[in-house]
Amino acid sequence: MRNFTIVGLPDTSVKESRDRIRAALKNTGFPFPRGRVTINLAPADLRKQGPLYDLPIALSILVSRGEIPAQALEHAVVLGELALDGSIRSVRGVLTTALMARRIQKQSIFVPKENEQEAAVIKELEVFGASTLRELIDHLLHRTQIAKTIYLRRECIQQNEHCFSYIKGQDLAKRGLEIAAAGGHNILLSGPPGTGKTLLAKSFPSILPPLTEEESMEVTSIASIAGELTSSSGLIEERPFRSPHHSASAVSLVGGGTWPTPGEISLAHRGVLFLDELPEFPRHVLEHLRGPLEDGVVTISRAQATVKFPARFLLIAAMNPCPCGYASDPKRRCVCTTMQLQNYQKRVSGPLLDRFDLRIEVSNLSQELLLSEVRSETSSSILTRVIAARKKQADRFFDSACHLNAEISPALLEHVCFLTPDAKTLLALAIESQSLSPRAASRVRKVARTIADLANSQTIEEHHLAEALQFRGQKMQRE
User: Fold this and answer.
1) pLDDT 10s digits, 295-350
2) So what's the pLDDT on residue 48?
3) Residue 459: HSE in the Cβ half-sphere, 13 Å Cα cutoff
4) Are 298 and 248 contained in the same domain?
5) One domain for residues 322 and 186
6) What is each CA distance from 93 to 76, 96, 99, 115, 118, in whole angstroms?
7) CB-based contacts of 340: which residues, under 8 Å, 6+ apart?
8) Burial class (CB in 10 A: 0-12, 13-18, 19+), 397
9) Biggest distance spanned by C-alpha atoms of the chain
10) Pick the residue with more confidence: 171 or 2?
11) What are phi and psi of 364, to 5 degrees?
């Protein structure tokens, strides 16, 4: 359509809005302007993407023709996709747009009916959900009124499908998961097939506390941008648990694309990223995790722009000790050659392994323990201790950028992770005998800090540090 031009770096979906807008206006009862129409999307140097511009462009045309008074939209933000018949369809990124509207002190926001609960999270805005273009126009002309949307908070129902009480034995692994949940530490589970590594990981969310309001806003914003919210979704209150397949590409894991979108590590923000069969992931894909694990953010650079997504997640990984899986099983014979074993272990780099604070060997259960009818400790009782430990960390870091012990900065390490003389002697022996790197030594101290918090201890005692060293995957004995 030569008489209808959109400028300002629009992508294909924005250019196609010309046909949708023309048909929607016609089917709503408004003729399309006969003269030349030019839509300028400012700023001109920022690429525009998606169909959310359909509705504001259509209303702009009606305002320019005098069909709608400009004052009706002076303090409002509008977004939505138009169908050919004039109905309004849902779009992505409504929550982030509502946050922007609040920041620039707008009074109201008009969104598709399916997205109204998402926008209603922002209490400072008047939210109106419209189903059709005609309905919205009648509201702006005061013919009929669209009811203001009231946020309906969903009741958070705790899923008990996976509970630690259903897992027999594996006390060491459960203890490690409790420490990881309390301090936000990364954990690696290793062992033969069928020992329960995946079940332990899937039960892990049952001992995680619910999201805070600030965390819920962050998690929901990311899910909104990625298009993973349902039509009735408000705030996400359960911590995300993402488990990508080992065939996942680097872009799907860390994010990217022509116009960058969040990947699995951002969708797992403030939650859990579970990588089952860790060595089966391509090594170059796993190497992309090293930066986000340290910084809590992933930076994606493209020719048009550089985008940063939050990625403060807890990493749980599971792996077999060898390709056949039975190298550490005393009852099964490993059939792997030395070369196969070496190649398998090389799939995960040393620097990545060094970022796991806890490494646990999950072994097979004895016949007596497997057939025992004794129930283990429930997830709810473990959760009580985890919440208490996190409360101590919240009080400790109330004026800091840190949230959990795993995030302690080098500047705070000496002050927060204060060691008793005996604990300091033990750590010195461990550094010498196990050749711990400075990063590994600091991570051991952070884990020991979490163990001390679980024990309600102000200082890190020798036995706290000894337990932290136990989870490094190597035995440490004092002489």
Assistant:
1) 999 998 877 778 899 999 999 999 999 999 998 888 889 999 999 999 998 999 98
2) 87
3) 9
4) yes
5) yes
6) 17, 5, 10, 10, 9
7) 322, 323
8) middle
9) 91
10) 171
11) -70, 155
Supply the range of the domain harboring residue 61: 4-140
Q: Are residues 307 and 188 in the same domain?
A: yes
Q: What is the pLDDT of residue 30?
A: 93
403 falls within a domain: no
Tokens of 354: 């060094």
* 392 φ, ψ (degrees, to nearest 5): -65, -40
Q: Which comes out higher in pLDDT, residue 153 or 79? A: 79
Domain match, 279 and 422 both:
no
Query: In Å, how far from its chain's centre is CA 124?
Result: 26
Q: Which amino acid is at 360?
A: I
CA distance 385 to 455: 9
Q: Are strands 297-301 and 306-310 parallel, antiparallel or unpaired?
A: antiparallel
Total number of domains constituting the chain: 3
Whether 391 is covered by a domain: the verdict is no
Quote the CA–CA distance of 164 and 161 in Å, as a whole number. Answer: 10
Query: For residue 12, what pLDDT is reported?
Result: 87
Q: Residue for token digits 């272990």?
A: 345
Same domain, 322 and 458: no
* Three-state SS annotation for the chain: CCCEEEECCECHHHHCHHHHHHHHHHHHCCCCCCCCEEEECCCCCCCECCHHHHHHHHHHHHHHCCCCCHHHHCCEEECCEECCCCEEECCCCHHHHHHHHHHCCCCEEEEEHHHHHHHCCCCCCEEEEECEHHHHHHHHCCCCCCCECCCCCCCCCCCCCCCHHHCCCCHHHHHHHHHHHHHCCCEEEECCCCCCHHHHHHHHHHHCCCCCHHHHHHHHHHHHHHCCCCCCCCCCCCCCEECCCCCCCHHHHHEECCCCEECHHHHCCCCEEEECCHHHCCHHHHHCCHHHHHHCEEEEECCCCEEEEECCCEEEEEECCCCCCCCCCCCCCCCCCHHHHHHHHCCCCHHHHCCCCEEEECCCCCHHHHCCCCCCCCHHHHHHHHHHHHHHHHHHCCCCCCCCHHHCCHHHHHHHCCECHHHHHHHHHHHHHHCCCHHHHHHHHHHHHHHHHHCCCCCECHHHHHHHHHCCCCCCCCC
- Taking only the tens place, the pLDDT of each residue in 360-419 is 999 888 777 888 878 889 999 999 999 999 999 999 998 888 889 999 988 899 889 989
From residue 422, alpha-carbon distances to 200, 264, 307, 458, 466 in Å are 34, 42, 47, 15, 11
What six digits make up the tokens of 427? 């750590």
Distance, CA of 54 to CA of 72 (rounded, Å): 18
Q: Which of 112, 100, 12 has the alpha carbon at shortest distance from 56?
A: 112
**Mean pLDDT, all residues of the chain:** 90
